[in-house]
Each structure stands twice: as structure tokens, then as C-alpha cells.
Amino acid sequence: MPNLTHISKLLSKILRHQPDLIHIQLDENGWVEVSILLQNLAKYQTSISFEQLKEVVDTNNKKRFSFNDDFSKIRANQGHSIEVDLALQTQIPPAILYHGTVEKNLTSIFEKGLSKMNRQHVHLSADAETAQKVGMRHGKPIILKIESKKMYDKGYVFYLSENHVWLIDSVPSEFIHL
Ligand code: HQG
């Protein structure tokens, strides 16, 4: 019986990056029918119940997934590498947002700015502590401060995901500070 973390990681992989893994397709907004997801998970990966799926959605530490209103569909809230339209709302950012990274990326980041790399957006955090955790996934974390309000005032568009990750297309180096 897979544990909740295992299910969450598998769902992230399928709903953000590789629906092909269990032969499902996401719609243009990133949703898939829960019944099809559970059926194909059982067929190609591991069998989980609707109750387990709901527990993962409800208890996930980063609120990575959402159901629609009648629980018939599910999607990842952000972090996709495949192209989906999350119909995100634009938002006015706070004065400063944070980005966690590692030293080996710094030369390139200060040369070219922050790019979305394999994802659909650059991910920024509202607090330094969260950025530290994001950076730690890649090694010893370095926290960059982003002058988000200044960017907003210059016309850059910011989005806030369902689970409170700030998203943007790119951040030019002039707005990035150590
Ligand atoms: C770096 C997790 C060189 C960037 C987290 C990062 C987040 C550059 C890496 C979410 C660069 C990309 C995303 C440039 C950016 N030159 N390196 N020009 N521009 N980078 O994993 O932000 O747990 O795709 O600094 O909490 O680390 O999956 O992005 O180090 O919200 O839900 O390129 O993933 O969420 O790495 O993390 P990633 P990220 P989950």
C-alpha cells in the first residue's frame, strides 16, 4: 500500500509532467477526470482509493492539487512542464519576493536573469523561509531578493497560484539582489 508522500510524488509527476506514464490526457486547463485517473493508476502504477486521493489533496503540505467543485476532476495547482492554461489571476505583488537557488546558478542568473527553465513560470515565494526550502532541493540554498513591486510598476505581470506560489515569466537581472 503506497503512503501519502509516495502518492503525492506520483501525482506531481503525472499531473505536472508526464500524464503519458499512465496513458491519460489532461484537458487544456490541466484537469483530468478522477475516475479515469484512479482507473489508469490502478492499471499502470498502483491502486489507490478515492479516499486516499482525497487525503493527499487535503493534507498535502504545499496544497499541490485541487479538485473541481463536485470532486469529479483533479489537477495540479502549479509546477507544470507540459503546457496547460491554469487561468491564473494576475495579482499585485508585495514589494519584495524571494527565489531560492544554489551557487552554481548565480553567474548565469545575474547574466541572463531568472528563466522558467523546464517549467511554465519562474517560481517566487512570499517569504525567505519558503525560498530556502525551494533552494535546498538543489543543494546549499542561496536566497535571492526580487524587487517585485518595482517590476510590477514597470508592467511585469505576476500571478498567484491556488497554493500561494508567485509565478512570473522571467525576472531580468536588474531586479535581482543577493
Ligand atoms: C534555476 C517546488 C541558471 C533556478 C518548489 C532553479 C517550487 C537558473 C532551477 C517549484 C536560471 C530551476 C519550482 C538561469 C533559473 N541560469 N539557473 N538563467 N534561471 N535558474 O525546480 O524554482 O515541491 O524548475 O534558480 O517549491 O527550484 O515541486 O524551479 O534552481 O515552487 O511542489 O533553475 O518546485 O515545488 O529549478 O522550484 P526548478 P524551482 P514542488
Question: Can you walk through the features of this model?
Answer:
The chain is of the alpha+beta class and 178 residues long. Helices cover 32% and strands 17% of the residues. The chain has a three-stranded antiparallel beta sheet. Helix 1 (4-17) crosses helix 3 (50-59). The longest helix is centred in the N-terminal third of the chain and has 14 residues, at 4-17. The chain starts with a helix and ends with a strand. The mean pLDDT is 96. Ligand HQG binds at residues 12, 62, 64, 79, 101, 105, 108-109, 112, 114-115, 117-119, 123, 134, 137-138, 165. Its EC number is 2.7.1.-. It is an enzyme of class 2 (transferase).
Characterize the overall form. Answer: elongated
Mean pLDDT: 96
Alpha-beta content class:
alpha+beta
Strand order of the largest sheet: 1-3-2
- The low-confidence runs, each spanning 5 or more residues with pLDDT under 50, are none
Percentage of β-strand residues: 15-25%
State the share of residues found in helices, binned by percent: 25-40%
- Count of helix runs: 6
User: Bound compounds, please?
Assistant: ligand HQG
Could you give the count of β-strands? 9
Mind describing the biggest β-sheet? 3 strands, antiparallel
End-to-end Cα distance, whole Å, is 45 Å
N-to-C series of helices and strands: HEHHEEEHEHEHEEE
Radius of gyration: 17 Å
